[in-house]
Specification:
single chain, 12 helices, 42% helix
C-alpha cells in the first residue's frame, strides 16, 4: 500500500471558477500526487484550462465522448485514480491550504485495515466567496455510524477515502435521486470506519450553475411546509430523501453491512412499513442510539403527523 493521494474531480462548463479551485489544490501543505479530472462534454473553455494545468503541473484529464451525468462522471474519475487514498473534489470551490493534510492524517489514524472515509465541514459562500447565511459547524467530531444513518450528510467535496472502500462503492448508481456522496457516506458508515471533522476546511461555492449548490429559492407557502413536515417524516426519524437512499443502499450492499450496524438500519427502514402506531412506538423506543428525550420527541411528532393527516382528510 502506498501513501500517495489522488484527487478525483468531475468538471462540466467550469471555466468561471476552475482555475481558482485548481490553484488551491496545488497550494496545499500536502500537495496531491495526482489530480484526475473527467470532463463531461463541456462546451466552454474548461478543456483549455485543463490542458493549461496539464502542461504546467502534469494534471491528468479525460474528455467523455457522451455525457455521463454527475454520479457516473465521479465514478469514472474515482476509478481512474491510481493511488491508495482518493480525495473527491468539485470544480468550483476553494480549499484551505491544510485541508488535505488534516483529513489525510485523520484517515491514517482511523482506518485500521478497514474501508475508511474521513470528511469535514465547510463554509458556504456565494460566487464571490462572501459567506452566505449562518454557517452550521458541527460542535464536535463525529465517528459513530448511527450519526450518518440518522441524517448527517458528508459532502463529497470534503471526503478522502482509502482504496479498500472502492470495492463497496463502485459502481455508483446512476439514479438521479441519489447523489454519489450520500451513497458513499452511507456505505462507509455501514461497512467500515467513517469520521467527520468538525473543523471547516474549505469554501463551498453556491452559484446559479451548481448541480448541488444552487442558491436556495424562496420558501414554499407555510401550509405546504407544514404538510411536508408532518406528513410522514418523523415516524421514520429520517427525511424522505434519506429513506429513499437507504433503501437503494440496502438493496445493493446489505450483504456487506456489519451485522451489529444493520440492526439499526433495518429498524429505520421498518418504520416505513404499514404497521400500526403501537408497533412503531415499540420500534422507536428500542433505538438505544437515540436519547430517551429524542425518542419521545419522535413519537410525539408521529402522533401529530397522524392527527394532521386525519384533519386533512
Amino acid at each position: 500500500m502506498n501513501n500517495k493521494i489522488s484527487i478525483a474531480m468531475a468538471s462540466y462548463n467550469g471555466e468561471n471558477y476552475l482555475r481558482e479551485q485548481l490553484d488551491s489544490l496545488y497550494a496545499q501543505t500536502y500537495i496531491p500526487d495526482e489530480i484526475v479530472v473527467v470532463d463531461d462534454c463541456s462546451t466552454d473553455n474548461t478543456k483549455i484550462i485543463l490542458e493549461e494545468y496539464h502542461q504546467k503541473y502534469g494534471l491528468k484529464y479525460y474528455i467523455n465522448e457522451l455525457t455521463l451525468g454527475v454520479n457516473k462522471n465521479f465514478e469514472k474519475s474515482i476509478s481512474l485514480c491510481s493511488n491508495d487514498y482518493i480525495s473527491i473534489c468539485d470544480q468550483d470551490d476553494v480549499w484551505f491550504p491544510h485541508k488535505i493534510e488534516t483529513i489525510y492524517k485523520k484517515l491514517l489514524s482511523i482506518e485500521n485495515d478497514l474501508p475508511a472515509l474521513v470528511s469535514s465541514t465547510k463554509i458556504d459562500v456565494d460566487a464571490n466567496l462572501n459567506k452566505i447565511g449562518k454557517t452550521i459547524i458541527d460542535s464536535k467530531d463525529t465517528n459513530s455510524y448511527y450519526t450518518t444513518l440518522l441524517g448527517h450528510h458528508s459532502s463529497g467535496c470534503t471526503m478522502i477515502m482509502n482504496r479498500a472502500l472502492l470495492k463497496y462503492i463502485l459502481p455508483i448508481p446512476s439514479d438521479s435521486k441519489m447523489l454519489y456522496d450520500i451513497y458513499i457516506g452511507l456505505i462507509a458508515a455501514m461497512v467500515g470506519n467513517k469520521y467527520n471533522i468538525a473543523e471547516p476546511l474549505m469554501y463551498y461555492r453556491h452559484h446559479t450553475s451548481n448541480v448541488c449548490g444552487q442558491i436556495s429559492p424562496e420558501k414554499e407557502p407555510f401550509i405546504i411546509r407544514l404538510n411536508n413536515r408532518y406528513s410522514n417524516r418523523y415516524p421514520k426519524l429520517v427525511g424522505e430523501g434519506r429513506l429513499y437512499n437507504m433503501k437503494i443502499v440496502a438493496d445493493l450492499k446489505s450483504q456487506y453491512f456489519i451485522p451489529q450496524r444493520a440492526v439499526l438500519y433495518n429498524k429505520l427502514l421498518s418504520l416505513d412499513r404499514n404497521i400500526n402506531i403501537l408497533e412503531k412506538i415499540k420500534i422507536i423506543f428500542s433505538i438505544k442510539e437515540l436519547t430517551v428525550i429524542k425518542r419521545c420527541i419522535a413519537i410525539w411528532y408521529m402522533i401529530i403527523s397522524l392527527l394532521f393527516r386525519i384533519i386533512l382528510k
